[in-house]
């Protein structure tokens, strides 16, 4: 490029204050190692929503635009007859996007409505059904070559612009949908719509198929062609029933980031949470009006100077990923190398590099091999150099992720029952369960934290249970310990241990006597604020509100916790029977989410089996309410089937003789798998969960997390270590079949003295 033109282009882009520049982040060593492995996926069976729930989906690029550039399409009409005339050319382009990292093969059926085809070719040339059938079969053939889904694409039709009305427009939509239903596409994409009303009509028809629907509008922040703001458009698409909503084509990545941000804000304000999707075009068009790049004087034949670079795409992908977009792709102008840039940018989140990276390394790393000195000097010019590849740098990079980023990218393993374990170790009074141990015996607390960390915990939770000032005053007297003193000490202990591994620190707050005593909201929230102050001061990573019996009290707690600006996790000690006032578990979950908690769930009081049922009810209620906080479970470690609203507290053996009720590590394996399969992302335990129980969780989800915990060096799942026993009858017990089907005996031949204590909740304090 001549220096004059380079300077012009460079200064133009810099002067635009391209906001995505701010989204650059250093490439981690783990990502670099992924480049060396080039691990490819084994074809799977997950649908779009499952993939979006579990991570990031990479879309494909601009099929129509690329086909025109390759000589197979007319830029004047942009119709998809190429799928019949040159199917091998279409297959090749699909394969290039697949190799670049696309998780989706989208049918080349843009502009394929029958009224559009009739206008261009006359009534007897191509039928919508013919082209959609051909487009599907080509896409499916290529998708089977990798772990990809097939998306059936429909777009706007002339009937809407011509004012023929809803019935005529939906008739065109139905015609496009029929081949997709017949051929069983994996999901539908309604794209390149200019008017929200038309896409609402399309969504209405698409939903009748029973197939997952993604809906995107070709708009910027200014809104659709009638001036309806982007945020309102997103809300209307979601309310119409689209499972995924977003933006496609027309505007460049910078404008797309602004638009999806506006959409997300409006959806959040409306209490709606569809998955988000972006597929911008690949041409810079800052300041363009409602028609975006179509209004560029260079469109369609001289757009080359406006093409975004792979590095622009890296920044775009990071920006939208950080906003919570789960489906990231491109549209017109996005070539396979652009899609590879997306896949490389989110490689850490996806746990893999695309196949095409075997011929590429990010940020110019390949230039190290150049024989020209001044070319070699460009390595890293486009971005900070790659990290060294040491395990410490991997951990350092990962540790920058907060709770929500970790939940977005995979699973988080919590810790276990700190207070209960410390009582058994001689450091806590079982009558009061207060946390003065952090001041009196900090080394004992550190040791237990370290054991949970070694067992696989991603979170070190402060030992601050029952630490409200009114509780401390009641239990220990007003002059013994202060809430601030205890919480400060607990934060410092937790952070010291968390820094020894890749762990987050969570500040724990629970119910307080002021609520039970009926002192009202102001008094309760004053207690909450007192506990929160040390957490803010010590800059913990997030807040856990836990062991609340009444949803009203936890709503008050959430209200105060949200004011800190930290991530708020809210869990209740409830079963299917509901809270202390009989409010159903599902309603409790909805109320916690609406109060502002980003993670909601269940903790303590009930065993794993009951917890699975409860979180399932919570999830159903949240789905019905259109809410999607992350889910969390931390059951207690004691079997108490059939217990009333007070769970294991009503066991006659509580707290000193619960040993026969302790769950086994194999019970924990089953629990972890059950809640994981329900979509729970934060899995831990509470009272009774020892480090070996947490290790069982970490081992059960080792495949999902891509690692075993350090403590597995001394353990192999499902009794595999027993193969080395010198006793034959013990060797026979090695393996899952034996332990998974075992019903443990208690060793007690007398029946229990009592089943459950029916004491009402008013006696609990």
TrEMBL record:
PROSITE patterns membership: HCY
Annotated protein name in UniProt: Hcy-binding domain-containing protein
One Pfam match: S-methyl_trans
UniProt keyword terms in alphabetical order: Metal-binding, Methyltransferase, Transferase, Zinc
An example molecular function term from Gene Ontology annotations: metal ion binding
Pathway membership, UniProt: Amino-acid biosynthesis; L-methionine biosynthesis via de novo pathway; L-methionine from L-homocysteine (BhmT route): step 1/1
Source organism: Scylla paramamosain (Mud crab)
InterPro entries xref list: BHMT (IPR051524), HCY_dom (IPR003726), HCY_dom_sf (IPR036589)
Taxonomic placement: Eukaryota, Metazoa, Ecdysozoa, Arthropoda, Crustacea
Annotated spans, Disordered: 743-765
UniProt domain Hcy-binding: residue ranges: 45-346, 400-701
GO biological process, one term: methionine biosynthetic process
């Amino acid at each position: 490029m001549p220096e004059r033109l380079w300077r012009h282009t460079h200064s133009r882009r810099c002067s635009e204050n391209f906001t995505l520049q701010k989204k650059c982040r250093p490439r981690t060593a783990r990502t670099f190692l992924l480049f060396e492995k080039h691990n490819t996926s084994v074809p799977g069976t997950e649908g779009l929503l499952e993939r979006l729930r579990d991570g990031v989906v990479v879309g494909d690029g601009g099929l129509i635009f690329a086909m025109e550039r390759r000589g197979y399409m007319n830029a004047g009409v942009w119709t998809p007859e190429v799928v019949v005339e040159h199917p091998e050319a279409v297959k090749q382009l699909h394969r290039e996007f697949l190799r670049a990292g696309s998780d989706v093969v989208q049918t080349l059926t843009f502009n394929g409505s029958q009224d559009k085809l009739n206008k261009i070719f006359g009534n007897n040339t191509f039928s919508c059904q013919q082209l959609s059938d051909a487009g599907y079969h080509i896409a499916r053939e290529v998708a089977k070559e990798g772990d990809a889904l097939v998306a059936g694409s429909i777009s706007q039709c002339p009937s809407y612009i011509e004012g023929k009305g809803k019935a005529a427009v939906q008739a065109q939509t139905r015609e496009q949908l029929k081949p997709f239903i017949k051929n069983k596409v994996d999901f539908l994409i309604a794209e390149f719509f200019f008017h929200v009303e038309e896409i609402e009509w399309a969504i209405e028809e698409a939903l009748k198929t029973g197939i997952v629907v993604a809906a995107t509008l070709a708009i910027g922040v200014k809104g659709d062609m009638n001036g309806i703001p982007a945020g309102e458009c997103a809300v209307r698409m979601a309310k119409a029933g689209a499972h995924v909503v977003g933006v496609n084509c027309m505007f460049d990545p910078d404008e797309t980031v602004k638009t999806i941000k506006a959409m997300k804000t409006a959806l959040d304000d409306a209490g709606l949470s569809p998955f988000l999707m972006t597929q911008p075009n690949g041409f810079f068009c800052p300041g363009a009006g409602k028609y975006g790049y179509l209004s560029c004087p260079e469109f369609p034949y001289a757009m080359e100077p406006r093409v975004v670079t792979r590095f622009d795409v890296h920044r775009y992908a990071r920006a939208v990923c950080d906003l919570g977009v789960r489906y990231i792709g491109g549209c017109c102008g996005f070539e396979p190398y652009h899609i590879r840039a997306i896949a490389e940018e989110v490689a850490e989140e996806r746990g893999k590099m695309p196949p095409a990276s075997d011929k590429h390394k990010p940020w110019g790393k390949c230039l190290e091999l150049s024989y020209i000195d001044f070319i070699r000097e460009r390595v890293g010019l486009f971005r900070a150099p790659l990290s060294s590849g040491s395990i410490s740098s991997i951990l350092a990079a990962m540790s920058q992720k907060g709770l929500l980023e970790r939940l977005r990218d995979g699973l988080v393993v919590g810790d276990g029952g700190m207070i209960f374990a410390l009582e058994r170790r001689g450091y806590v009074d079982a009558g009061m369960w207060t946390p003065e141990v952090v001041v009196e015996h900090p080394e004992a607390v550190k040791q237990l934290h370290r054991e949970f960390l070694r067992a696989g915990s991603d979170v070190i939770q402060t030992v601050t249970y029952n630490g409200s000032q009114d509780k401390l005053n009641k239990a220990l007297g007003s002059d013994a310990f202060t809430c601030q003193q205890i919480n400060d000490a607990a934060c410092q202990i937790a952070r010291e241990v968390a820094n020894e591994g890749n762990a987050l620190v969570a500040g724990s707050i629970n119910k307080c006597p002021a609520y039970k005593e009926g002192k009202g909201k102001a008094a309760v929230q004053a207690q909450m604020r007192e506990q929160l102050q040390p957490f803010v001061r010590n800059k913990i990573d997030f807040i856990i509100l836990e062991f609340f019996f009444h949803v009203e009290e936890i709503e008050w707690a959430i209200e105060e916790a949200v004011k800190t600006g930290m991530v708020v996790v809210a869990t209740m000690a409830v079963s299917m029977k509901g809270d202390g006032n009989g409010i159903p578990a599902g309603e409790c979950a909805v109320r916690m989410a609406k109060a502002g908690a980003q993670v909601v769930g269940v903790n303590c009081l009930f065993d794993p089996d009951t917890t699975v049922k409860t979180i399932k009810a919570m999830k159903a209620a949240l789905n019905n309410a259109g809410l999607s906080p992350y889910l969390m479970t931390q059951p207690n470690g004691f079997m108490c089937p059939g217990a009333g609203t007070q769970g294991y507290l009503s066991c006659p053996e509580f707290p000193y003789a619960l040993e026969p009720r302790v769950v086994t590590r194999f019970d924990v394996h089953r629990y972890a798998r059950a809640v994981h399969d329900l979509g729970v992302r934060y899995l831990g335990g509470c009272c009774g969960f020892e480090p070996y129980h947490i290790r069982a969780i970490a081992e059960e989800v080792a495949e999902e997390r891509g690692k075993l915990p350090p403590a597995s060096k001394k353990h192999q799942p499902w009794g595999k270590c027993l193969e080395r026993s010198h006793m034959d009858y013990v060797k026979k017990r090695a393996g899952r079949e034996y332990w998974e089907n075992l019903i443990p005996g208690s060793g007690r031949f007398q029946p229990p003295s009592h089943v459950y204590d029916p004491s009402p909740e008013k006696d609990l304090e």
